[in-house]
Amino acid sequence: MTAEQQHDEQDQDRPLQAGGGAGAHRSGFVALVGRPNVGKSTLTNVLVGEKVAITSTKPQTTRRAIRGIVTRDDAQIILVDTPGVHRPRTLLGERLNDLVRETLGEVDVVGFCLPADQRIGPGDRFIAEDLVEMRSGRRGPKVVAVVTKIDLVGRDVLAEHLMAVDQLMGFDEIVPISATQGEQVDVLLGVISAQLPEGPQLYPDDQLTEESRDDRISELIREAALEGVRDELPHSIAVVVEEVVEVDPDGDAFTPVEPGTGRLVVRASLFVERDSQKGIIIGKGGSRLREVGAGARAEINHLLGRKVHLDLRIKVAKDWQRDPKQLGRLGF
To answer: Which of 27, 87, 263, 332 sits CB 3.0–4.6 Å from 76 for a disulfide?
Structure first.
C-alpha cells in the first residue's frame, strides 16, 4: 500500500469532529507548485532541514515529485516538490506538466510559490486557474500562497506584491518568507500544519525523504553537471546510477566484497542528446568532467557518510527528450 492510499484509508475511517479537535495531531501531503525557478527546491530543503532536492539557477531543474518529510510534535508534513509548470516544447515537458497536475489531485494542501522579486505573470495565472478549477470539486486542496524571496525586495515592493497575490485567487492563507534567510519559515510550517486533516504520523521520526539512495545520487550528479553549462544543454542532461558496489581495494576493481570491508564504487551514466554536447560535458582534456566528478563526489560522500569512488561515463541518447522509449528507459 502506498503512503497516499494509507492516508486515504485513514482519512475515510477517521470520525468527523466538530471544531477540528484542538491539539489533535495532523498529517498529510503538501505540494509546492509554481513557475520554474521560483525557489521550490530551496524551500523544500529548508523546511526538511536537509538537502533532499537539488537546486540550480537553471529553470526546470526538478523532474520528479520529490518528497521531503517534516516531523513536528503536532503534525507530519509530507512535502512534494514538483517540477515548474511551463509551456512544454518536448514530450518530457508535457510529462512534467502532467506530473504536476496529477500530484495536485492527490494532496491536502498546495503551497503556491510566488517570488516577491517578480511580477505576477501569465504562468502564475495559468496555475491559479487550474487551482480554482480543482477547488471547485468536492475534495479540492487548501491553497496557501507562499511569497518567496522577500529578502530581495523592499517593504513597498513587497506590500504591492502581496496585494497583487491576494487578487490572484481566493487563498486560504498568504505567507511571505525568505527560505535562504530562514525568515518566517516556522510561521509557514505552522500555517501548513493547521490546514492539514487530523491524522496519525505516517513515517518514522528519522525519515526525511521517500527518495531512494540511487535516485538521490543520480540527482546529485546531475546537479554538479548543471553548473556552468548554458543554452539548451541543462535540459538535455539525464543521469542513471548503474550500480553502487563495494570492491576489493587491493584486488580486482570489479569483484564485490562484503559491505563495509572494501571501497565503495558508484558507477553511473550521464546522458546527453548529441555528440557535441558530450564534448561540452567532457571539456578540454577531460577538465570539465573532472570538475563534475569532484563536485558530485563531495555531495555523495556527505550523503552516504563515507568516501566513494565515482565512475562516471558520458553517453549519447539521441533526442531522448522527444523519444517515448528513451524517456521510459531514463525513468520518465
So the answer is: 27
Distance, CA of 104 to CA of 135 (rounded, Å): 10
> Is the Cα torsion angle 152, 156, 161, 166 positive or negative in sign?
positive
pTM value is 0.68
Q: Which burial class, exposed, middle or buried, applies to 16 when counting CB atoms under 10 A from its CB (0-12, 13-18, 19+)? A: exposed
pLDDT value of position 6: 47
Q: How confident is the model at residue 170 (pLDDT cuts 50, 70, 90)?
A: very high
The 10 Å CB-count burial string (b at 16+, else e) for 274-313 is: eeebbebbbeeeeebbeebbebbbebbeeeeeeebebebe
Strand 263-272, strand 109-113: pairing: unpaired
Neighbours of 135 (CB within 10 A): 16
Which position has the grid cell 558530450?
Answer: 278
In the prediction, which pLDDT does 66 show?
65
